Amino acid sequence: MTKSEHRNAPAAEGADAMQSILINGVAAAGGISALDRGLHFGDGLFETIACLHHRPRFLSLHLERLARGCGMLGFSPPAMQLLREEIEGVAAAQERSIVKLIVTRGEATVRGYAVSGREQATRVVIRYPWPVENPVLRQQGVTVRMAAMRLGENPALAGLKHCNRLEQILARSEPQAAAFAESLMLSRSGKLVSGTMTNVFLVDGPPHSPRLRTPAVELCGVAGVMRRVVLREAARAGIAASECALLPADLAAATEVFLTNARVGVWPVGRLEERTLTPGPVTRRMQSLLQPLLEEPADA
Amino acid sequence: MTKSEHRNAPAAEGADAMQSILINGVAAAGGISALDRGLHFGDGLFETIACLHHRPRFLSLHLERLARGCGMLGFSPPAMQLLREEIEGVAAAQERSIVKLIVTRGEATVRGYAVSGREQATRVVIRYPWPVENPVLRQQGVTVRMAAMRLGENPALAGLKHCNRLEQILARSEPQAAAFAESLMLSRSGKLVSGTMTNVFLVDGPPHSPRLRTPAVELCGVAGVMRRVVLREAARAGIAASECALLPADLAAATEVFLTNARVGVWPVGRLEERTLTPGPVTRRMQSLLQPLLEEPADA
Questions:
Q1: In sequence order, which ranges of A149-208 are alpha helices (DSSP H)?
Q2: Same domain for A245 and A267
Q3: Closest approach of chain A CAs to the CA of B44, in angstroms?
Q4: Can you name the residues that pair with B115 across neighbouring β-strands?
């Protein structure tokens, strides 16, 4: 492991005194029921929400995705206004924080996989401290590797930020992973999908009319909130941006590569395996376009 | 839904006064930590153990599979002797029960997918009442349908009874599923895999030398404990039995089909979609061979 790899590895983000937990609206509640289907089967969804100036960022987009996910998994989410109030309440106490919302189908009313329809969704809101980040990452770019672990394909789960995340955990646990800021993953059928915790964008095309592309998430992967914001802002700025099937060859041919998630916004890729990349004009443009949205605690 | 479908549907198995829960060895503990990785990511494994005459059945096989699964997910399981004592203790209070063991990687020590290596596995032991079962199922066979939901493929997770079970839940939630005892699932690439909660065996070949086959679980599916017992007992009895790639055409061509799991032992399939099957000699033979092992609270 080189010094620069160390520098680019994300800092460990431990639980500390700034942490706060609400379980179904109650602080310091006893814990989650041992019968919760989230624990038994990963039968739930989550959102990781960046909070700035005491307010959650892009909260409406997060809640919209959550509601769509609940619909696809076939259960009723908690009232959106309730979730909004709890998240805003927890975020208010700190200038900056990360709030994770977990919504499960709830406590099991029958044993086994079957759903009775009488389940009541469980909601968990956890506030974590905003992690210390090296400003160099945003400037010079992060180091990225290719994970050996591939993502299984299932259109019924694709796009959702559901709680079945063993594949991401195993990718993140691969021997070299800790020395890199992110690991990119391919699908079982060999397509580029995403990082373990980020979406990926490729830039190619001639300098006067560059093209921005990100893998479609129709068979696997998560439809990230920041991915959606980037696609929207690129379109507004007249930059051609699309979701499509992408192969490792497209990644190799890209002149710029960047990663996105709700916390980091846009991370240029500065090194991809053995290849050095220089954050280019399209990446910088997207960073500029997003900057006011990221600094302003905008709701959508 | 016909009357016979109703009759074959498994009875709802509700939580009741016979239920008992141990969390890390403590009864009536406050609940599971909201930071447990089992809740966040389904980062754990489980075993469903049939208990008879106050004792867990095939406990060594269950614990062996659990330990192998922890190894594949990269965390240390709790001490096996401790798990054994807790399961035996919980089972002792009832003549018959189902004990579910969940072992997660434990409470998160860092935010996100990364593992610090400092996690301590969480163990949950839950005793459920033995479900009421119609004896006709074992005799005349169960009704089975094909699920529309397919199983994503990932060799790193195949065979494990891990806690990422959204695919099984969605299969079990399909509109027709509740009217059938089980739904059979294909893999993304079109191979027969298993039921949502059972393994499947096909019988074919000439009557004087029948052949028993079950789908390999190298890309998806669970390597069930009863599946292992059936393969072992068939081999001991001189019945050709193998694990291999099987297609829907093999299922259609099978003269007998049966399902297995730790609770039901062997369930003959009496109807598969529109096709009626008669439980045949090989199914009956396997039921007879297993009978003493199922009635005797044998450990292995």
A1: 166-172
A2: yes
A3: 9
A4: none
A90 contacts chain B (CB < 8 A)? no
Q: What is the CATH number of the domain that holds B79?
A: 3.30.470.10
Task: Give the least confident one: A4-13, A117-126, B159-168.
Answer: A4-13
DSSP state of B58: S
Tell me the pLDDT tens digit for each residue of B41-64. Answer: 999 999 999 999 999 999 999 999
Residue the block writes with tokens 């309440």:
A89
**A73 lies within 8 A of chain B by CB:** yes
Number of domains in chain B: 2
Domain span at residue A101 reads: 9-129
Same domain flag for A118 and A151: no
Question: What's the CA gap between B64 and B298, in Å, rounded?
Answer: 15
Q: Do A290 and A178 belong together in one domain?
A: yes
Which residues contact residue A27 at a Cβ distance below 8 angstroms, ignoring those fewer than 6 apart? A20, A21
User: Distance between CA B104 and CA B98 in Å, rounded?
Assistant: 19
| Contact call for A43 and B178, based on CB within 8 A | no
> CATH number, domain at A238?
3.20.10.10
Does B114 lie at the interface with A, CB-CB under 8 angstroms?
yes
Interface test with B, best of A36, A39, A218 (most B CBs within 10 A): A39
